[in-house]
Design a protein that fits this description.
Elements (H helix, E strand, L loop, with lengths): L6 H13 L4 H19 L18 H26 L13 H8 L3 H35 L2
Helix pairs in contact: 3-4, 3-5
Length: 147
């Protein structure tokens, strides 16, 4: 193609691309914009807004590694929050709320610490479930005794 274009024509195309960009970078930006709008409509109001760049591919190895690490920490925090929320056996009981500091602390746990935290949650869940079942049994007995 360069054999068929003069340097002036190539310069014109570069100038045109500055005015009216095209290509995969523009497509990534358009898709990132749509994803950011959807994410911002559904985000927690206390969280900073998303930008299109949050949803665009990263080609720089250093930036890619930093994003992967941040995503891993966020996933670990979400997993830990889900574990804590699932530890409430009574479906009518309010789920516990974590502060940003607690979520950040959970995200920093290594595998052994996370395993210990899960074991603690399992033990707490078993204790809470047993307490809930005893309370339900007492309620049933009280209702049956009152008939």
């Amino acid at each position: 193609m360069l054999d068929e274009l003069t340097s002036s024509e190539v310069a014109d195309w570069y100038a045109f691309a500055e005015i009216e960009p095209w290509g995969t970078g523009v497509d990534d930006f358009r898709t990132g914009t749509l994803a950011a709008v959807i994410a911002n409509v559904n985000r927690n109001p206390e969280r900073a807004p998303y930008s299109p760049g949050d949803f665009m591919p990263t080609w720089d190895p250093v930036e890619r590694a930093a994003r992967a690490e941040a995503a891993e920490e966020a996933n670990a925090a979400a997993f830990a929050a889900a574990l804590i929320a699932s530890a409430v056996p009574d479906p009518d009981a309010p789920a516990p709320t974590l502060t940003a500091d607690q979520v950040a602390e959970l995200a920093r746990l290594d595998d052994a610490e996370l395993g210990a935290a899960i074991a603690d949650l399992d033990a707490a869940e078993d204790g809470m479930r047993a307490t809930h079942e005893r309370a339900q049994s007492r309620r049933r007995a009280a209702l049956e005794g009152g008939r």
